[in-house]
Amino acid sequence: MQSYVAERKKSAAATMSRSSFTPTEYLFKILVIGELGTGKTSIIKRYVHQFFSQHYRATIGVDFALKVLNWDSNSIVRLQLWDIAGQERFGNMTRVYYKDALGAFIVFDVTRPATFDAVVKWKQDLDAKVSQEDGTPIPCVLLANKCDQVKEGMVNSVAKMDEFCKENQFSAWYETSAKENVHIDDAAKTLVAQILKNTAQYKPHSKTKGQILLNQVLSSSDKKTNGNCSC
To answer: Cross-referenced Pfam families, in alphabetical order (predicted)?
Structure first.
């Protein structure tokens, strides 16, 4: 009988522990940049909504989307994707748009070599305007988009692309197709993994530049406003 009671107590304690566990929730700001017409909006729509259209209008200024990832049993990652217009590199607003970003995708069109030629300028602009707390560049993944079509230029050589990315401090590069849903999830997982690796140096439940631990924010707000969060 005593053994039975002890087992019941142990089971109840385990159940209570599981029910009271709250995974850490992260909010990461991710930039999606590159020349006009490279498919940035299409990539975001495919990734977030599993939807593709050939009839998007050009983005004016900046647009936003949110993707929620159940990363593992301990973590939920919310990605705030900033879709920045291709012409914005020539404007004065990119510093505002880039502020507090923790990662970025730079997109070019494999059928238009001129969009690849602009990649270095986008990367230089990004690195000049946003960085990690130690001053190093934020993680950035290069997307060679529209790979379902005939490719032109350096993208036809994997070795040359690998060397290009190494020289320009890209975390990785992927051939992608928003139309055929090729490698978009893989690219996002690579970027998120790198961001999480970079933020691992910070103590849990502490707010860092560009990173919000949502369960900490909600907990603090509950104490102040009885659960009414205006985040």
So the answer is: Ras
